[in-house]
Every structure is written in structure tokens, then in C-alpha cells.
Amino acid sequence: MSASDEVWILGIRMTKFGKHLELDTVDLAAEAAMGALADAGITMKDVGVIAAGNLMNASAGIGQQLQKQIGQTGIPVYNVANACATGATALRTAIMAVKAGEVDYGLAVGVEKLAGAGLLAGGSSTKDADTWTPKGRYGAVAPVDGRIGTETMPGVFAQIGTEYGHKYGGTSFELFAKISEKNHAHSTLNPLASYQKRFTLEQIMNDVMIAYPNTRAMCSANCDGAAAAVVCNGETLKSLSLEQRRRAVKVSASVLTTDPYEEGCQVLPNVNTLTRKAAEIAYAQAGIAPSDLDLVELHDCFATAELVHYDNLMLCEVGGAADFFNSGATWRDGSTPVNVSGGLESKGHPIAATGIANIWEICHHLRGEAGDRQIENAKVGLAHVIGLGSACGVHILEKSRVKSAA
Predict the structure, then answer these.
(1) How buried is residue 15: exposed, middle or buried, by Cβ count under 10 Å (0-12/13-18/19+)?
(2) Which tens digit of pLDDT belongs to each residue from 313-353?
(3) Is 186 tagged catalytic?
(4) pLDDT tens, residue by residue, 146-160
(5) Catalytic residue among 184, 349, 364, 395
(6) 349 catalytic, yes or no?
(7) CATH number, domain 153-192+199-207+252-398, options 3.30.450.20, 3.40.47.10, 3.30.1330.10, 3.40.50.1820
(8) What's the pTM value of the predicted model, to 2 decimals?
(9) Count of H-run helices and E-run strands, the chain
(10) Which one is the CATH code of 7-117+223-251: 3.30.700.20, 3.40.47.10, 3.30.230.80, 3.30.1360.120?
């Protein structure tokens, strides 16, 4: 083992997203992990480290539970919880171990049981009362929800989207609905998506209003699911079969950022600065420009979020996200296809699995294995996730240049 500048995804697997009443968290994680190992052509005996992500039951030691089901080999386990960036953080942890030369192979897993969870909030809301008793870090502070904005995720991202519109113009209820229309249309070609149903613009706009301008159809789907990836270094890859080398996907950039200090509004989370910073670092690491991307899977937890991240990922000029979408660029047959999987709005959002699931989608296009939704001649893709708190993960992936045997 030695330090390596090159890291490759050798195997990757995503379970069907949706309701899995018969499977628990460990079962789902095991399905994804064993699938990734099989896809890589290795076994647990080869793996040197596990990074396991689970947010909703973060203290349960999902990595150790997983080992008991797929193989206990005494290797180190890192249990990861990092909001909606949990899966991307788990992968980044495995990548760092491989890149440092500590192991030849690393396994990253993200899993969540989230079906029926309802609206997710920041977790700091308390009951109203006539008197306030000092308690905890924030002392005698009244609940802010409903007084100063909202802590529910649909409301937070509704404000983020409308703020972008106020600043740059060009947005409308209908435009945000059209983003959702695109993603639901894309989902019909993804057999692993939680929902595979096309909606008309009218159906989306007339659906139950959750937090204006986000209707129910414009919100990510809470569901069960898992995803896993096996990574290895460049020297190890050279020793493997021609087919393994052909299907391997190069990790050209792996970046994780948090919020920098800034003076300003402490009420509305800033999802822009850390995403733009992660994108800047990733493009520099990979030595590419946004125009080189053949497809993007970004964190569309809500339709309003997708629009903002066009700008944050520099897919368009500053302030030009609405025009960029209206150009048709983000559809599957556009110049920069975005969320060909159906996105979180259709594919679903089992929080800790999402970061690796977005990468799974990119890998399948780069391998030429995406079936009916395949982006022709895809060579470079970007996967993005962001969790409030905040944490942002960006990975840039490149197709292997190894050709099949004649």
C-alpha cells in the first residue's frame, strides 16, 4: 500500500428506493454493500476500511451492525452523520483512506429508513408558553418557527428560491413547477426511482401546497433506500482485469465544504457560498470547466433548490439560472442534462443514501450502462449534495479510457 493521487470507483450499487416494509436498515445496507462488492469483483476480505453513513439513527453504529451481516474482518469502521451530505461524506472518508495509502480498497455505504417521516425540520423547535425558562445553549429564546421564517425544510428552501428570484428576477411559480415537471419526466426511465410517473404542469401546480412555491410534487420524497461504493487506488486498479479497468470510474475531484464565517442574516441558511466554494475547488482539482460536464446530479431537495444550484455550480452565469433552465439545457436531451435519474423529487431522498446514489447515476452513464436514459458519449459528470448545518459534497467523475478487448 502506498499513497496514490488516483482513486477509482471500482464497484457501486443502489437499492430500489421506496417503501421496504420487510427490510430494516441493516438489510438495506447489506444489499447495497454486497451489490457494490460484487460489481467491483472483490470480497469483504479485500476491504481495508468501511465508512458507513446513517443520519436518523446515527448513534446505532450502523457500520458494525453491517459487518455482522456481511463479514467481520476486524477492519476499522467510521460511522458518519453529516446531514444530507452523509453519503458523500462516507465516500469521501473511504477515498481519503485509499488516497493516503492506508488501504487498497475502501467501502462506503449510506442507508436510511425514512418512508412516512413527514416534514423534516431543523430540530430546534419548542412549545410555546407564556413564560420562557432559560434552557440549553440558546437560553430563553422563543421558538422562531412561524415568527422569523420557518425551520421546516420545504419552507427553508422555498425562501431560498424566492430570495434568488427577488435578487435576479426571472422566476415564477410556473418556472419552479416546470423544473419539477422535468424531473418527474426523467424518472419514468429510472426503474430504481421511488416514483416513476410523469406529471403535467397543471397537476404539479394544483397539487397540495406545502410551502409556496413548493407544492407536494415539487418536494423530495422521503423513502427507504441504500447505496454503496467500492473505491481503490490507481496502482491496485492496474493489477485487475481488463473488464474491471474498463468499468472503473475515475474520481477526478472529491470535495467537502462547510460554511465560512460571514456577517449577515443568521435566520436564513446560506446554501450558496459553501456550494460555490466546493464547485470551484472541484473544477480546479479535476482540471475542467463547467462546460466540460456531460451530466449533473444535483441536490434538488425541492424544485426551488435545483434552480439556485444551477448558479452555485456555475452551470450558468451569475443570476442566469432562470434563463439557463428556460433554454432547455437541463433536460435529458439538452446541453447540460441535470437529474436524469429523476432527482430527489422522484428518485427519492433516503438522506444518508442520496450522496452515493447521485454518484451511482453518474457512474452508470460513464460506463454506458444507464439503459433508456443513457446520455450518449458521456465522459464527465458531477454529483452534488448539500445538508443544512451545513455541509456540501461535490464529486467529479470521469470515464475510464480503457477499451474492451477486440
Answers:
(1) buried
(2) 999 999 999 999 999 999 999 999 999 999 999 999 999 99
(3) no
(4) 666 677 889 889 999
(5) 349
(6) yes
(7) 3.40.47.10
(8) 0.94
(9) 13, 11
(10) 3.40.47.10
